[in-house]
Amino acid sequence: MSTLPPCPQCNSEFTYEDGSQLVCPECGHEWSATESAEASDSGKVIKDSVGNTLQDGDTITVIKDLKVKGSSLVVKVGTKVKNIRLVEGDHDIDCKIDGIGAMKLKSEFVRKV
Hints:
elongated, three-stranded antiparallel β-sheet
């Protein structure tokens, strides 16, 4: 019985070790064994621009003027955003900004209040 973790991409149980890497024979994905252990211990931790850990429901402040793509609106420095949601992807904060509406922000441009 194998004690190796399943593939993080396709969840195949048939992973094997190749040196310091783990390999999935079904999809060809390769990852390090230490990376797999860290990822299984805790989910992805999202941090703000100064290193504070963000959680769903937090209040944040924007630290840089951000242009809204596809419009002439700008989210100004110091704008407070309440009740954020953390999501997967490049823009990892989902929120609603007064006067602008629903947006996705990158955590590197915000600070936890």
